[in-house]
Recover the amino acids of this structure.
């Protein structure tokens, strides 16, 4: 019998069965179909429960256009639109450092299209970086089930020195940090952050 934690940080018990699988096959089958954002949310919930970090997804701003009131104490939104987000997907704090990052997935085998990043997101990453935050990009190449952390410095260097409209996977392999998938937490990106902090 093994005790683990689910996505909300609650304890759960896994009872042994007659059919056993290796750890590798269990992880890959459990991971199948989950998005990077779902994995990050589970990871952040684990960090929060274990008091390792406090990181949250920023809500997408919504513009409410029309509301109906079927009763005096009830309101029903019947028309609303997503506003253009002004910053990145996630922010929080870890060991006294602000964390700010964007999460993206790509189905392309050889590159990540820069069109997936909006200028206001790049501007925001630059701004928080200049104010001392740890800013980065998390990109998953879905075909290979590979998730990379690319620091803002390496992202900015590519944007300043290259004219192409996509970042090759080879650039992530050489200049990024591969984050192996684990069961708990799924994407332990703080291990990379710890390694980067030790270099300073």
């Amino acid at each position: 019998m093994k005790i683990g934690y689910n996505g909300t940080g609650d304890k759960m018990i896994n009872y042994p069965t007659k059919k056993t699988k290796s750890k590798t096959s269990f992880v890959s089958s459990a991971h199948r179909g989950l998005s990077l954002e779902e994995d990050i949310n589970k990871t952040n919930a684990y960090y929060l429960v274990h008091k390792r970090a406090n990181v949250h997804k920023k809500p997408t701003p919504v513009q409410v256009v029309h509301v109906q009131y079927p009763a005096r104490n009830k309101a029903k939104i019947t028309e609303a639109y997503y506003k253009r987000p002004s910053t990145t997907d996630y922010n929080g704090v870890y060991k006294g450092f602000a964390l700010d990052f964007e999460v993206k997935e790509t189905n392309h085998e050889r590159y990540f299209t820069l069109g997936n990043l909006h200028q206001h997101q790049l501007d925001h990453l630059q701004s928080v970086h200049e104010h001392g935050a740890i800013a980065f990009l998390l990109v998953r190449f879905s075909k290979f089930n590979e998730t990379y952390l690319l620091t803002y410095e390496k992202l900015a260097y590519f944007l300043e020195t290259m004219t192409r409209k996509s970042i090759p996977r080879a650039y992530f392999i050489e200049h990024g940090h591969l984050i192996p998938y684990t069961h708990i937490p799924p994407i332990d990106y703080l291990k990379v952050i710890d390694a980067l902090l030790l270099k300073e």
Remarks:
- The first strand starts at residue 2 and ends at 5.
- Confidence is low (pLDDT under 50) at residues 15-33.
- DSSP finds six helices and twelve strands in the chain.
